[in-house]
Specification:
Helix content is 43%, strand content 19%. By secondary structure, it is an alpha+beta fold. It folds into eleven domains: 68-212, Ribosomal Protein S8, Chain: A, domain 1 (2-Layer Sandwich), CATH 3.30.1370.10; 214-338, Ribosomal Protein S8, Chain: A, domain 1 (2-Layer Sandwich), CATH 3.30.1370.10; 355-426, 2-Layer Sandwich (Ribosomal Protein S8, Chain: A, domain 1); 429-497, K Homology domain, type 1 (Ribosomal Protein S8, Chain: A, domain 1, 2-Layer Sandwich), CATH 3.30.1370.10; 506-575, Ribosomal Protein S8, Chain: A, domain 1, CATH 3.30.1370; 586-651, Ribosomal Protein S8, Chain: A, domain 1 (2-Layer Sandwich), CATH 3.30.1370; 654-726, K Homology domain, type 1 (Ribosomal Protein S8, Chain: A, domain 1, 2-Layer Sandwich), CATH 3.30.1370; 801-872, K Homology domain, type 1 (Ribosomal Protein S8, Chain: A, domain 1), CATH 3.30.1370.10; and more. The strands form 15 sheets. Strands 1-3-2 form a three-stranded antiparallel sheet, covered by helices on one side. It has a three-stranded antiparallel sheet with strand order 4-6-5, covered by helices on one side. The chain has a three-stranded antiparallel sheet with strand order 7-9-8. Mean pLDDT is 77; it is low at 1-26, 42-60, 575-579, 916-942 and 1216-1232.
Length: 1280
């Protein structure tokens, strides 16, 4: 026998081509067992032999897939989205995508013949279950039903933490709503599919039925009998629960409830209730009580730890001991039980109460921690020997409480007293007062300082935490160590009082460069200023603040040094990166810097933003007037011009140019600018600008007040003339404290020397290294004369004398107030003269002056002038309403400081009173207001209503004429109010978003603008400010109104509406693909075009909004499109359906090309159309004809291919005709194939035969019984 088996497509092709037939003669056919190896056996054969190992029997570990697949079916009537045309797209597809994203499961949709929806869900089990729930709720219409079960069963449906309810909802794909506990309803609402509803109802009813079998019983038993129900250590109630199988819940002693709850099967509950009642009735009948008095402090010993002692007495005697609650003052203890057992129980109670005693040991509270020892080591020695003794330390009390068994107490007390006696004899303490702000410095970084002191002196130091704000530091330990530690701490604190802390603002990007690699650069700075501590912020904090701390002078020097380092880095950084930026610096008078900055930095910020430059101003406490601008050269120049314009506007600043030969410029500037700086300082701080060195320009620019500019010009030309003729320079030295005296008040002394000799004298600036060097410049003779006069003056200053003057004691306080500021000023001005006033309390008027003779005389003269001023001093009142005081003071009191300085007067403002203003609702003068007694400051008659209030009176002290001038200056600062009429509808635009508009105007004009509340509907806006600011603010506000009015008019013109009627069928054409056409019209004509919504009644109305002429133009553009569309025609042609796909092309590429080329629209029939060959062509008549011709040509071309392919198919051999001969690809006849031949097949062996297909034994039906047989099958062992 032979057999043919087809294995793969490749082998089949080989048979067709005759290759196998050729090889069959050469190669031997494979054996059947090699070609078809048998499947492995799970169990051993009856004979106990194992089959040979082969390809099928190799041991492969079975892998259980974690991914499952389930199919859900949604019938047509339950589908939420029934639009068949939108299958695979639209809302239904979006929902499916959302479910896949949300659950992680994979969904595949298919449509059944009955239009039902089949959804195959693949993924992990929990993802599939979640997806199923989402599918049911979002793709399937929902039904709802209610099921009623007893209210007490609801909690079993919910389960612990709601787990049962969640499981039920997931299992049935429903939403189950259970009424709240306070809702009396017993109906549970279920929503979901019909199938899910039935499943959920069934599950809920099953749970309820299960609970119906259980019972709950509540028995009220007096609280005093509960111990007899529970028994000692709850043994009795546990035995009852074990015996009956019911659960018995007895409330604990701390809960004041009498109800005992029994739950379980009905029979079990009934048995447990009977047992409980029997115990209760027996005890109620037989038990008696006795009451005894036990000290309240001993109650806890009777109770024992966790109530164990009470349980012990109950177990031994069967008597319950009732202790009053801790918050009760009662000392009565009640014993309840059988009469014959009460005596034994009473003995136990007294024994337990007296088993412990309490005593105390006197010990100062500051010694407590020494008694305890480090980590409780000292106490541990005692408590290990006597573990039952409790030792208690109370903070702030000078005693230690001991509590424990009576037999152990005496030994513990004697040990504690011995420890206390020893510590008192060798320990001491001291408290010192140190300002809390120095505490952290005393502690040091990481406690370094305080730990060193502790270790060195063997003491304990307690520094109070910051939140206590205490001055006291406590030192405890050895008496000598305490003394030494306190001395060292006080010295440290004293040193810190003379220290100063300064915050230096340095951009964080420079910190690393200042510190240097491995800290080498900052080490050099610290070596240069060893007394200054420099702290950089943590890089993570992103802070720019570098803190300097140390002696005042050293901190200032270090601050200047580091500021210079940063300035150099900025300069280098700009040019090293080749950013092509320019940097210009120019002087601006110091008094105008705040105006350039503006309120809140508004002006400087605006200039920076508009010119795209960086502008750096010197620090407020710096004497520098130079402003540095960095940026592009043209931008820097624009910024400079704008800053100079601000200065020019604020002051009478003039600019003058002087021609001086460029070869003299360096000599006029002097070393480090000393010569030119002396002229600038002498002439009221004018600015002198020399051209760049090497430029060859002779022009020197002088800028400043007109008079000072003229003065500087004369000195500059005079100095230049001296330099051109014969210039000579000499140097001499004098102590820095003499310089001010040599210069004199307002430069009077030095001017005399210069006028008499004609020489220029230049003093060092604070930045110069040699602070003693004085330079004299001029002709040789003039220099010699000036040097001679100055030398005599300096010599006289070195001649120290002492003089005495009389000063009335009433004036002493003026000189020594504010830490002697007046005396320090006199010393600075008059060569360091020392002025000593008598001690406070000494009744003396003698004041001692010590210093150079001329300086002493000048200082004495100045002090007499001050005394004369004080004697002539008057006090004057200026009445200004309190509400204006803050405005008069100015930011940080700057305005009032200016008046005080300019007029040399003292100004005192009254205390602020927050009461009602004059004319407002005030407290009644006589009687009570609002039922309260008014507080009267002074028991005087009612004040004159016309008299000013105390809080409005500003007091000025000084010379009369100066006070009068100061009063006028104060009144000039009183803000005035003006009103501007602005239409109400513009108010919100003036205010701006979140008040930004009005805030900007207030900052710009330095006024306060008050807009009335909306409910007032008022047109009046109030402007309050200084008189000279009001006009500018009013002009600015009116200008803003003009702008807003213009905008409003423009908005009105832009809101013109126009409608055009267009047939809705043309709307898609007007919109265009992806809105391209309508967007183009909107952009071109700057209009808004609105198409009707789906629900609008007028579906043919298109609304155009914009300027009238633009709206009309847009309408014309739309109408032109409509006219063009109306000219179009639509024709249908018949194209064979078999060529449609070829014409459409891949992804519609072919049809789009035809539509674009002929400017027509093509519509092919949908699947299932009545006429599958009908195609519609829409467009202009001539274009439609051309497109039709083109389509028909394509059809003819494509049909030729179709016919050719069909004719080929007719000549091909049918798939099932195996007997017929076939042709190869060249048309030659192929030889017949023998098929796939195997050797030693089962049916080829002696007794075997091929299986009979009609036999039910060889091919049994599913579910049919099969007779057992030992006969081996040709297909291998049978497995059924």
């Amino acid at each position: 026998m032979s057999s043919v088996a087809v294995l793969t497509q490749e082998s089949f092709n080989e048979h067709r081509s005759g290759l196998v037939a050729e090889q069959a003669g050469d190669e031997e056919a494979p054996a059947y067992k090699d070609a078809f190896p048998p499947l492995p056996e799970k169990a051993a054969s009856p004979e106990g032999t194992q089959e040979p190992v082969n390809a099928w029997t190799s041991k492969i570990r079975p892998l259980k897939s974690s991914v499952i697949t389930q199919v859900f079916h949604v019938p047509l009537e339950e589908r939420k989205y029934k639009d068949i045309n939108q299958f695979g797209e639209g809302d239904q597809a979006k929902v499916c995508v959302d479910i896949m994203h949300k659950t992680g499961a994979h969904l595949e949709l298919s449509m059944a013949k009955d239009q039902g929806l089949s959804i195959m869900v693949s993924g992990k089990l929990d993802a599939v279950m979640k997806a199923r729930k989402e599918i049911v709720s979002r793709l399937q219409t929902q039904a709802s039903a209610t099921v009623a079960i007893p209210k007490e069963h609801h909690r079993f449906v919910i389960g612990k933490n709601g787990e049962k309810l969640q499981e039920l909802e997931l299992k049935t794909a429903t939403k189950i709503q259970i009424p709240r506990p306070d809702d009396p309803s017993n109906h549970i609402k279920i929503s979901g599919t019909k199938e899910g509803l039935e499943k959920a109802k069934h599950e809920i009813l099953l749970i309820s039925a299960e609970q119906d079998k259980r019972a709950v019983e509540r028995v009220n038993i007096d609280k005093v009998f509960h111990p007899f129900i529970t028994g000692a250590y709850n043994k009795l109630v546990a035995d009852m629960m074990q015996e009956t199988g019911a659960r018995i819940n007895v409330p604990p002693p701390s809960v004041n409830k009498t109800e005992i709850v029994i739950t379980g099967e009905k029979e079990q509950v009934a048995l447990a209730v009977a047992m409980i009642k029997k115990i209760y009735e027996g005890k109620q009948k037989n038990a008696t009580t006795i009451a005894v008095e036990v000290k309240k402090s001993q109650h806890k010993y009777v109770i024992g730890p966790k109530g164990n002692t009470l349980q012990e007495i109950l177990e031994k005697t069967g008597v319950s001991v009732e202790i009053p609650p801790p918050d009760s003052n009662s000392e009565t203890v009640i014993l309840r039980g059988e009469p014959d057992r009460l005596g034994q129980a009473l003995t136990e109670v007294y024994a337990k109460a007296n088993s412990y005693t309490v005593s105390s040991v006197v010990a100062p509270s500051w010694l407590h921690r020494f008694i305890i020892g480090k980590k409780g080591q000292n106490l541990a020695k005692i408590t290990q020997q006597m573990p039952k003794v409790h030792i208690e330390f109370t903070e702030g009390e000078d005693k230690i409480t001991l509590e424990g068994p009576t037999k152990d107490m005496q030994m513990v007390q004697s040990q504690m007293e011995a420890i206390v006696t020893d510590l008192v004899s060798r320990m001491d303490y001291m408290e010192i007062s140190v300002d809390p702000r120095f505490h952290r410095h005393l502690i040091g970084k990481g406690g370094a300082n305080i730990n060193r002191i502790k270790d060195l002196h063997k003491v304990s130091v307690r520094i109070p935490p910051d939140n206590e704000k205490s001055h006291l530091i406590r030192i405890e330990g050895d008496p000598q160590g305490v003394q030494e530690a306190s001395k060292e701490l006080l010295e440290l604190a004293s040193r810190m009082e003379n220290e100063r802390t300064k915050d230096l603002i340095i951009e964080q990007r420079f910190h690393r460069a200042i510190i240097g690699q491995k800290g080498e650069k900052i080490k050099d700075v610290r070596d240069k200023f060893p007394e200054v501590i420099i702290n950089f912020p943590d890089p993570a904090a992103k802070s720019d603040i570098v803190q300097l701390r140390g002696p005042r002078n050293e901190v200032e020097k270090c601050s200047k040094f580091m500021a210079k380092m940063v300035a150099d880095m900025v300069y280098l950084k700009v040019f090293s990166h080749k950013l092509f930026l320019s940097m210009i610096d120019f002087p601006i008078f110091k008094q105008f810097h705040k105006n350039i900055i503006g309120k809140g930095g508004a002006n400087i910020k605006k200039i920076r933003e508009e010119t795209n430059t960086r502008i750096d101003l010197p620090a407020e406490n710096s004497n520098s007037e130079m402003i540095v601008i960095t940026g592009k050269k043209e931008n820097c120049e624009v910024a400079r011009v704008r800053i100079l314009a601000i200065q020019k506007e604020l002051a009478n600043i003039t600019e003058m140019e002087v021609s001086i030969p460029s070869k003299l410029h360096n000599s006029l500037i002097g070393s480090k600018g000393r010569f030119v700086r002396s002229i600038m300082e002498e002439c009221g701080g004018v600015h002198i600008h020399f051209p760049t060195e090497g430029s060859g320009i002779d022009t020197v620019t002088i800028r400043g007040p007109a008079e000072e500019v003229e003065k500087a010009k004369k000195q500059l030309l005079s100095l230049a003339q001296d330099k051109q003729t014969k210039s000579h320079t000499a140097e001499l030295k004098a102590k820095p404290e003499y310089h001010k005296f040599l210069i004199g008040k307002g430069g009077g002394n030095i001017r005399k020397v210069r006028d008499s000799t004609g020489a220029r004298i230049i003093f060092p600036t604070p930045d110069d290294e040699d602070q003693e060097l004085i330079t004299v410049v001029g002709t040789e003779e003039a220099v010699r004369e000036a040097q001679k006069e100055l030398t005599e003056l300096i010599k006289s200053l070195d001649n120290v004398v002492e003089d005495v003057m009389n000063v009335d004691p009433k004036h002493h306080r003026y000189f020594v107030a504010r830490r002697g500021q007046v005396l320090r000023d006199i010393a600075d001005e008059y060569g360091g003269v020392m002025v000593s006033f008598p001690r406070s309390g000494a009744n003396s008027d003698k004041v001692t002056l010590k210093g150079a003779k001329d300086c002493v005389e000048a200082a004495k003269k100045r002090m007499l002038e001050i005394i004369e001023d004080l004697d002539a001093q008057v006090t004057m009142e200026c009445v200004i309403p309190q509400k204006f005081h803050r405005s008069i003071m100015g930011p940080k009191g700057s305005r009032i400081q200016g008046i005080t300085r300019d007029h040399n007067v003292q100004i005192k403002f009254p205390e602020r009173v927050d009461g009602p203003a004059k004319g407002g609702p005030a407290v009644q003068e006589n009687g009570e207001a609002n039922g309260e007694v008014p507080v009267v400051e002074e028991a005087v008659a009612p004040a004159d209503p016309t008299a000013p209030r105390k809080c409005d009176i500003i007091v000025l002290s000084g010379r009369k004429e100066r006070c009068e001038a100061a009063v006028e200056a104060l009144k000039a600062l009183v803000p005035v109010t003006t009103e501007v009429e602005v239409p109400f509808e513009l108010h919100r635009y003036i205010i701006g978003q979140k008040g930004s508009g009005i805030r900007k105007m207030m900052d710009e004009f330095e006024v306060n603008i008050q807009v009335p509340a909306p409910e007032l509907q008022s047109d009046i806006i109030s402007i309050t400010g200084l008189a000279n600011h009001l006009d500018r603010a009013k002009e600015g506000l009116l200008e803003r109104v003009k702008e807003l009015t213009a905008e409003q008019e423009d908005r009105s013109l832009r809101s013109f509406k126009l409608t055009i009627t267009v047939d809705p069928k043309y709307h898609p054409k007007i919109i265009g693909r992806k809105g391209a056409i309508i967007t183009n019209i909107r952009t071109e004509h700057d209009v808004n075009i609105q198409f009707p919504d789906k629900n609008d009644d007028n579906q043919d109305q298109i609304t155009i909004t914009g300027y009238e002429h633009k709206a009309t133009a847009a309408k014309d553009a739309i109408q032109a499109i409509v006219d063009e569309l109306e000219e179009m025609i639509s024709e249908d042609i018949t194209l064979d359906a078999r060529v449609h796909a070829r014409i459409i092309g891949a992804r519609g590429k072919g049809i789009r090309k035809i539509m674009d080329e002929f400017k027509v629209d093509l519509r092919f029939p949908q699947p299932g159309a009545a006429d599958p060959n009908q195609v519609f062509v829409t467009g202009r008549p001539e274009l439609v004809d051309e497109a039709i011709d083109h389509l028909l040509n394509l059809e003819e071309e494509y049909m030729a291919d179709v016919n050719e392919n069909e004719s080929k198919i007719t000549y091909m051999k049918p798939a099932g005709d195996r007997g017929a001969s076939s042709m190869d690809e060249g048309g030659r006849e192929r030889g017949s194939s023998k098929g796939f031949v195997v050797r030693e097949a089962p049916w080829q062996t002696g007794s075997e035969k091929a299986p009979d297909m009609s036999s039910s034994e060889d091919f049994p039906s599913f579910g049919a019984p099969v007779a057992a047989t030992n006969k081996a099958s040709p297909w291998g062992p049978k497995r059924f």
